[in-house]
Amino acid sequence: MKTQKTIILAICLIATLGNLQAQKLQFSDVYLFGGAASAQTGALAQWDVNEMQRGLLQPNNLGSRGYSQNANSSRYSNQGGIMAAWKINGSEKQKLRIGFSGGSYQANWASDFYKETTYRLDTFVSQQTGEMYFVDSTHRQNLSYQHNAQMFNIHLNYLQTLNPQNKLSFYVGGGASLGMSLSNQVTVNYSENSDLGDPSAYNYYNNNGNYGSGYGNNYNNNSSYNYNQNINIFETKTQSPTQNISAFALTGLNWRLSNKNRFFKHINLFGEWQTGLQVNRMQEINNSIGFLNGLTGGLRVSFNDSPRKN
Questions:
Q1: Which neighbouring-strand residues pair with 289?
Q2: Which whole-number Å values give the CA distances from 80 to 32, 75, 76, 101, 105, in the listed order?
Q3: Which among 128, 175, 171, 173 has a CA at the least distance from the CA of 278?
Q4: What is the C-alpha separation between 283 and 239, in angstroms, rounded?
Q5: pLDDT digits over 21-30, tens only?
Q6: Model confidence, pTM
Q7: Which of 41, 101, 60, 40 is nearest to 293 (CA)?
Q8: What is the DSSP annotation of the chain?
Q9: How far apart are CA 177 and CA 20, in angstroms?
Q10: Euclidean distance between CA atoms 265 and 283, whole angstroms
Q11: Are residues 206 and 212 in contact, defined by beta-carbon separation less than 8 angstroms?
Q12: Which of 35, 138, 194, 208 is most buried by its number of CB atoms within 10 A?
């Protein structure tokens, strides 16, 4: 199946490049870029969450009673890559841009579980006042799930530039991208912590219910209290391939380093904001549609621009 999809995409790309030549396109730019994006989607159903977490360590294996859970529903991606642009009909104002990128993609349904239990460890009596002090220890358990996929992305953009001969120019446009996973995994991280330290450093409650922050010099340090225990467990499972398709409008700024220097007039810095829709697909969960927002920036090397001389 992966081979068939790759062949189809290659055929589409070759056909697109052939069509570019037929439209009197002139190669003009190379873009080196990086960026990040997020897509806000509806909350995953409990069935979807169960499928993502199936086969991994679960809260009920640890005694789920008393756990608190925080939930959100977003998709995050980071990417870096290269794109090339062509002038349409020789115009510097209109360009078609095609490129590739690689990066990470996360479906963050945020099943984060936390449990905290307090134990009474010891009781101390003040030698000066006879007042009783109780020392407690806190036992903490954390359980979190994370999805991460390594993606290969194909990009196609149309750009319309205002005043392209200026040192600082503004452009708008639209585009689409297709992402396919090279790897797709869900990981669970369980950590357990019990700590016990010098009672002079501990917060405490006295027998009247008043809160304090330490014992001062009334008690000597006791090495038996210098105790710390940490447990960490990681489990990972491989998911089926995931894909996403995005369609968006974009707005950007381009800064040419120089309009006169023979070298730097070809070097540009750019940044753009993208907003649109993203469709996500993974076999284990239902398809989702989210509102996409992303920022991209990097270096643009131009070959056929005509910068303003002044």
A1: 279
A2: 8, 17, 14, 5, 12
A3: 175
A4: 8
A5: 555 889 999 9
A6: 0.71
A7: 40
A8: -HHHHHHHHHHHHHHHHHHHHHTTEEEEEEEEEEEEEEEE-PPPPHHHHHHHHTTS--GGGT--TT-EEE---EEEEEEEEEEEEEEETTEEEEEEEEEEEEEEEEEE---EEEEEEEEEEEEEE-TTT--EEEEEEEEEEEEEEEEEEEEEEEEEEEEEEESTTSSEEEEEEEEEEEEEEEEEEEEEEEEEEEEE--GGGS-EEETTS-EES--TTSS---GGG-EEEEEEEEEEEEPPPEEEEEEEEEEEEEEES-SSSTTGGGEEEEEEEEEEEEEEEETTEEEEEEEEEEEEEEEEEESS------
A9: 18
A10: 49
A11: yes
A12: 35
Q: Per the structure block, which two tokens stand in for 299?
A: 């270096």
Q: Which amino acid is at 234?
A: F
Structure-token match 């009247």, residue found: 208
Q: Scanning the structure block, which residue is given the tokens 């510097």?
A: 92
- State the Cα–Cα distance between residues 37 and 39, nearest whole angstrom: 7
Could you give the CA distance from residue 298 to residue 284 in angstroms, rounded to a whole number?
A: 35
Contacts of 137 (CB under 8 A, 6+ apart): 118, 119, 121, 194, 195, 196
Residue with tokens 């002044």: 310
Which tens digit of pLDDT belongs to each residue from 7-41? 555 555 555 555 555 558 899 999 999 999 888 77
The burial class, CB within 10 Å (0-12 / 13-18 / 19+), for 303 is exposed
Closest to 225 in 3D by CA, of 263, 254, 199, 255 = 199
